[in-house]
Amino acid sequence: MVSRISFVITNIFMEHFEKEALRKILKKLEDWFRYVDDTFVIWRYGRAELRTFFIFLNNQHPNIHYTTDIEKNGILLPRCFYL
Questions:
Q1: What residues have CB less than 8 Å from 65, skipping those under 6 apart?
Q2: With pLDDT > 90 as the criterion, what percentage of the chain qualifies?
Q3: Distance of alpha carbon 3 from alpha carbon 72, whole angstroms
Q4: How far apart are CA 60 and CA 38, in angstroms?
Q5: What is the CA radius of gyration of the chain?
């Protein structure tokens, strides 16, 4: 059984992780929202730069692994582990 405090600790860790990771990038994000383990990002720099950003995020901590769903023409494309 998971302790209630683990959700609080996880949220504090993720806030710190995001703050540090986003502080290091040169291109600033349009939007970044997280709810539990889902993150919504608006990226305006193209797919090649998004792949670079995605690889960067996944290299920041050995236990944090982002996956992606990409929108095209108003429809989410199948889940990708890399772009």
A1: 58
A2: 40
A3: 39
A4: 17
A5: 14
